[in-house]
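[Meeting: bench + compute handoff]

Bench side (C.D.) handed over the final construct sequence. Compute side (W.E.) agreed to return the predicted structure before the next meeting so the bench team could plan truncations. Sequence as handed over:
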Amino acid sequence: MKKSTVIIMWGVITAAISCLFSLTMYLSGNSNSGLAYLSFLILFAGMVVGAVQYRNKANGGYGSFGELYKVSILITLIVSAISTVYFIIFMQLTPAFMDRIREQADANMVNKGMTAEQIQMAHQMMQTMMSPTAMVLYSLFGNLLVGAILGLLAAGILIKPKPFMEEDNNTLPS
C-alpha cells in the first residue's frame, strides 16, 4: 500500500466520521454540550489508526517519531479541509444554527448575572467573531492546533524505529 494512499484514506474516513458526529450533535440539540469534545477523540483515533496503518503496511513495520508525526499532521490537514467545507455548507443550509448559538450565549450571560450594558457589549464582540469568515478561520486554525498537539501524542505512542543493526548482519567480517 502506498504511503499517500494510507494518509488520504484515513484523513477522509476520520473527516467523514467527524462530520457525521457533528451533524448528530446538532440534530440531537447537544451542539453546545461537553459531548462536543468527543470530536477530539475521533481525530486522535483517526490519527492513531492511520499512523499504525502507515507504519505497518506502507513503511515496513517501522516508524520514526518524525515520520509518524508527519503522517498525523497530514491526516489533520485533510480532516481540517473537509471539516471546513462541511462547516461552510452546514452554515448555508442551517441558518438557525447561528441563532441557536446566540440564544445560548444570551442565556449564559443572563445566568452569570451580566448587566444589559455588558450583554450589549458582548453582542458587539460576538458580531465580529461570529461572521462566517471568522468562524471558518477559527475552526480551521483550531483543528490544526489540536491536531498538532494530538499528533505529538500519537507519534510518541506509536514510535517504532528501525533497529540499528539487523539480526542477520550483526557479526563483523573477519
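W.E. noted at the follow-up: The first helix runs from residue 3 to 28. C.D. will use this when planning the next construct.
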